[in-house]
Amino acid sequence: MVAIREISRPSASLNAMSTPAGPVLRVPPAVAGVNRDQDMSSHADAINARRMNFYYGENQVLFDVSLTVPERSVTALIGPSGCGKSTFLRTLNRMNDLIEGTRCTGELLVQGQNIMDPSVDVVLLRKHVGMVFQKSTPFPKSIFENVAYGPRVAGEKNRAVLAELVESCLRKAALWEEVRDRLNDSAMALSGGQQQRLCIARTLATNPQIILMDEPASALDPASTARIEDLIGELCSQYTIVIVTHNMQQASRVSHQTAFFFEGRLIEVGPTTRIFTSPAQKKTQDYITGRFG
Amino acid sequence: MPLSRKTASLFQRRSANGHEKVIWASLLSCALISILTTVGIIVVLLGNAVYSPGKSTAFFEEVSVWEFFTDTHWKPAERHSGTELSDSATGKPAGHFGILPLLSGTMMVALVGSMVGVPIGLGAAIYLSEYASPKERDVLKPVLEILAGIPTVVYGFFGLHFITPWILQPVLKHVFGIEIGVFNVTSAGIVVGIMVTPMIASLSEDVLRSVPRSLREAAYALGSTRFDVSMRVVVPAALSGILAAFLLAFSRAIGETMAVTIAGGHKIMLTANPLAEVQTMTAYMVHQSFGDNSASSIQYKSIYAVGLALFSMTLVINIASQWVLRRFREVYQ
With the CA atoms of A54, A58, A61 and A64 taken in that order, what torsion angle do they form, in degrees rounded to the nearest 10? Predict the structure, then answer.
C-alpha cells in the first residue's frame, strides 16, 4: 500500500507546529466564485453516498465511505496516493464498471436516485455526471468535433444547434477567444492547458448536473492551473463539482467542502476552512501539515 | 571499441572476441538474406523482361511497352519468337501481349476479396478489441490464426467445390435467374476474401488495441455506448493503421495464386463482369510455366513481364501502406 512517512520524526519544531493551539495552516484566499463561508445547508444533496465498499477482486479499497455533496458546490477529495479518493470519484459515474473484476456495495444516491441499481442506464448516468481526467484526452478530431461529440452521440444532428452549443461551452470553459478562428483545426495541436479546458467544454456539452474532476490540473503548469481553478470558481454556481487533488493549496482555494481519505476510509469531511484550520482528526492534521503523504 | 594498448591488461581484448565476430557475421548474413533475395528476384525479373545481356532477347525487346499496357488482348500462343514479329503475312505482328485482360482479372478478384475480407476482418478486429472478454479473445485469436494457416490450395477447392456449386449457383439461379459457370471471379474473390480476413483482423486489432485506454474512458464518460466508443473514437483514432492493413491485404490478394488458379478459371479476357471466368496474372504465370513452351520462347518470357508487373504493383501498394501509416498516425503522449 502507501508508504507512510508518519513514523516518529523527533523534531521539536514539527511537534510545536502540530499543537492544536491556533490555526493549523494558513488557508490561501479562495478563487473568485467560491465562497467558503457560504452555508450550504439550504442546498439539496446532489450526491449522497452511504456505506460504500469497493473491491478490486478480493482486495477491498473502500471501507464504509459515507459522504454527502450539496448541489452547486465544490467538494475536494484529498489524501495520499492509493487512499481510494480516485476510486470513490469513479464510482460516482460508475466508471469502475469498465474495469473487470470490480465490485461495489452500499447505496449511492445521485439526485435522489440510487445509481447502483442494476436498472440504471450508465450511458444516461454519465451524461448527467460528467468527468474530466488527469491527462487531457482530446479525441483526434477537430476542436469543434471534440465539443460536439457528446451532443452527437446523444443524437443531435442540426449543425446550427451544434454550433451554438459548441460556442457556449467553449465560452464557459474560457477557451472561446483562443480557438474561435480555428475550430476546425485538430484538437491535438492545442497546448496542454487548452486541451484540458477543451475537455471541460466537451463535458459541459453533454449538459451534466455534476462534474467529476480527477486531478484536472496536476499535469499543467502554474498559469494553466490557475485558469482551471478560476474556471471551477465560475462553474460552481451552476454545477456540482467533485474534485480529486493532490495539491492541498488547490483544495483549499477551490472547494467549499473537503473530504480526507486515508487507506480506503473517509477520515474526515467538513467545510474547507475548518478542515484546514482546525481538523478534528489527528490523521487529517498530520496530512495537511505535510507530515506524510 | 578497441582500447588503447597502454590501458591495463584488465581491459585488453581477449581472444573470445573472435566468437563475437563470428556471431556478428552470421547474424548479419541472416539479416542480409532477405535483401539479397529481393535483389536477386529483381535482377531475374529485369533480366528476362526488360534487358537481357548476350544473345537471348528479353520480353520487352520483342514486345513494346506500349503494346503491353494498351493492347486489350492477351493471346501469346499465336506469336512466335524472333523473325515473325515483322515477318507476318498480314504485315502486323501476330499474337497479342496486352496485360489489361490479366490485370482486370487480378483486380476484380482482389476487389471482390476486399469487399468480403475488409468488413469481416474489421468487424472481427473491433469485436476482439472492444467487445470480447479476455476469455473469448483467448479462444477466437488462435482460431483466426488457424484460418490463416490453411494451405491456399484448400481454399481453391473450397471455392470450386463448395462456394460455386452450393452457394453462388443456387442463389444466382433462384433469385436472379442467372446461370454461371464453374469457374468465376466471384467464388475466387470470396475465398481470397476469407483468406485475407485473418490478416486484416489481426493487423487491425493490434492498432485498435494500441489506442490509449484514456481515450476510451473519456468517450464513455461523455455518455457513449460501446458502439459509439468503437465507431466514433477508437476506429477513427486507429484509422491510419487500419488503412495500412487494408492495403497490405489488398496486396496479398493481388499476389494470391493457388486459390484463384483453381477457382477463377483460365479464360483470358478483358471484362468487368464478376460472374465471368477469368485468368489472373498469377494464374497465367502458373499455367504458362507448366506449359510446353521452351524457355527461350516469347510465351515463356512473358511470365517474367507479368511477374514484373505484379511485383511492381505489390511494391507500390506496400510502400503506400507504410506511407499512410506514417502520414496519418496520431501521436499520443
Answer: 50
| SS3 of residue A267 by DSSP | strand
Q: Domain of B133: which CATH number?
A: 1.10.3720.10
In a domain, B246, yes or no: yes
Mapped onto helix, strand or coil, the DSSP state of residue A48 is strand
The range of the structural domain enclosing residue B227 comes to 105-281+315-327
> Which cell goes with A77?
477529495
Q: Is B176 exposed, middle or buried (0-12, 13-18, 19+ CB in 10 A)?
A: exposed
Residue A137 · residue B214 · CB < 8 Å:
yes
Q: What is the pLDDT of residues A232-268, one digit of tens each?
A: 999 999 999 999 999 889 999 999 999 999 999 999 9
- Contact flag B215-A130 (C-beta cutoff 8 Å): no
Q: Would you call B221 and A149 a contact, using CB atoms and an 8 Å cutoff? A: no
CA distance B225 to chain A (A): 6
Contact B3, B13 (CB under 8 A): yes
Domain for residue B68, yes or no? no
Question: Is B70 part of a structural domain of the chain?
Answer: no
Query: In the CATH hierarchy, which fold is given to the domain comprising A45-288?
Result: Rossmann fold (3.40.50)
Please list the ranges in chain A whose pLDDT falls under 70: 1-23, 293
